């Protein structure tokens, strides 16, 4: 019995030491709401949907102290549809985030894997009062599809903060046989945060081409690029928080359409290769919650298929983890534009939408 007691104490000691050096956290969000959509080719659409405000997810993250100000870190995050229990993307467990890396107090952080782009982080974390969710999501008009949101096979560097300034760098490897350039992506972000002011300037450059199959390669095969530049800012006045964003999109795939032809036009809308968006928003503390509103304008310089979105919502925290929400938005499409009012996880089916739901973080 004494030997067993001693063994138990030794094991407990090792466990305590391991816990002091490293930790793993299980976290997630459960979000579901009622969504009513109007104005599209499918007519009136009423549904219970997952991830209206924030995508429902289950994640694991951890750090290990390696000493001398250096630590290892990882994140593995999977999306779930809480209304049906399915995976967000069939066949992928960690389609949201999956990366591992090192962090130094003095030199910054380097991570490798599937990661968010700085472009999406600036839009969702700084520019949009709706946080890229609910009916008023900036994703309805700002381009965020596919590689503009998350990038596989990527290397990201985040610098330390110096007097409020920091820099982010992203390199995405195309990993196409026969070419080290095709499909590659590069991003840089300059950030400033000081008290009530937050500003981010981001540039993202994507090589659209695929590896050439001809030998020798066709001249100019690497000249098709998507270039996105975004300025995002917010300022907290105390009685209200103001939001602003302006983005320029140049080149093929710089502004892919969220939905191909939601309105059943005889001539389907085309994605522009020369466009711009700007956003003005506000968040106002009200009755224990937060009233948010935004106006977004889309300027299509190629086809003149412009659009404007008006949105308002109310977020009421019942606790630090649980929030009730309601939002409504409308898009005015011009000259055959086909933009829709979606939410955080769905692109939507029409030009009007209403949300009512609950979000719980754990």
What does this structure look like?
There is one protein chain. With 362 residues, this protein is mainly β. It has a 16-stranded antiparallel barrel. The two termini are 41 Å apart. Strand 9 (185-194) and strand 10 (197-207) form a beta hairpin. The longest helix has 20 residues, at 2-21. It has helices at residues 2-21, 118-127, and strands spanning 22-40, 43-50, 57-67, 70-79, 97-104, 108-116, 150-158, 165-172, 185-194, 197-207, 225-236, 241-250, 274-286, 289-300, 307-317, 322-333, 352-361.
Brief descriptors of the model:
362 residues, 16-stranded antiparallel barrel, globular, mainly beta, 51% strand
Short description:
The protein is mainly beta and 362 residues long.
- Tally of alpha and pi helices: 2
Mean pLDDT: 92
C-alpha Rg (nearest Å): 23 Å
Largest sheet, in brief, is:
16 strands, antiparallel, barrel
Spatial arrangement of strands, main beta sheet? 1-3-4-5-6-7-8-9-10-11-12-13-14-15-16-17
Strands, helices and their partners?
Elements: H1 2-21, E1 22-40, E2 43-50, E3 57-67, E4 70-79, E5 97-104, E6 108-116, H2 118-127, E7 150-158, E8 165-172, E9 185-194, E10 197-207, E11 225-236, E12 241-250, E13 274-286, E14 289-300, E15 307-317, E16 322-333, E17 352-361
Antiparallel strand pairs: 1-2, 1-3, 1-17, 3-4, 4-5, 5-6, 6-7, 7-8, 8-9, 9-10, 10-11, 11-12, 12-13, 13-14, 14-15, 15-16, 16-17
């Amino acid at each position: 019995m004494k030997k067993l007691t001693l063994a138990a104490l030794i094991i407990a000691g090792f466990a305590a030491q391991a816990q002091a050096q490293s930790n793993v956290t299980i976290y997630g969000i459960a979000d579901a709401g009622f969504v009513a959509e109007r104005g599209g080719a499918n007519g009136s659409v009423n549904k219970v949907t997952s991830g209206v405000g924030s995508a429902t997810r289950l994640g694991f993250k951890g750090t290990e102290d390696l000493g001398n100000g250096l630590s290892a870190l990882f994140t593995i995050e999977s999306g779930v549809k809480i209304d049906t229990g399915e995976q967000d993307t069939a066949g992928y467990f960690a389609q949201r985030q999956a990366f591992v890396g090192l962090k130094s107090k003095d030199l910054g952080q380097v991570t490798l894997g599937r990661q968010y782009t700085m472009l999406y982080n600036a839009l969702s974390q700084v520019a949009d009062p709706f946080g890229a969710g609910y009916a008023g999501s900036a994703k309805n008009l700002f381009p965020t599809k596919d590689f503009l949101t998350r990038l596989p096979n990527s290397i990201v560097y985040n610098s330390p903060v110096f007097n409020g300034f920091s820099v982010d760098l992203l390199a995405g490897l195309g990993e196409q046989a026969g070419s080290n350039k095709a499909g590659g992506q590069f991003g840089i972000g300059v950030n400033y945060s000081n008290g009530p002011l937050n500003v981010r300037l981001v540039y993202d450059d994507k090589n659209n081409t695929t590896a050439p199959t001809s030998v020798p390669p066709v001249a100019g095969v690497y000249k098709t690029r998507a270039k996105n530049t975004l300025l995002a800012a917010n300022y907290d006045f105390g009685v209200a928080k103001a939001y602003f964003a302006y983005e320029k999109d140049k080149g093929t795939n710089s502004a892919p359409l969220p939905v191909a032809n939601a309105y059943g036009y005889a001539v389907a809308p085309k994605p522009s290769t020369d466009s711009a968006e700007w956003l003005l928003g506000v968040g106002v503390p009200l009755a224990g919650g937060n009233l948010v509103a935004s106006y977004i304008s889309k300027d299509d310089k190629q086809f003149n298929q412009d659009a404007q979105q008006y949105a308002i919502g109310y977020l009421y925290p019942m606790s630090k983890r649980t929030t009730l929400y309601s939002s409504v938005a409308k898009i005015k499409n011009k000259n055959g534009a086909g933009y829709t009012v979606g939410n955080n996880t769905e692109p939507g089916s029409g030009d009007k939408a209403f949300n009512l739901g609950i979000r719980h973080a754990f």
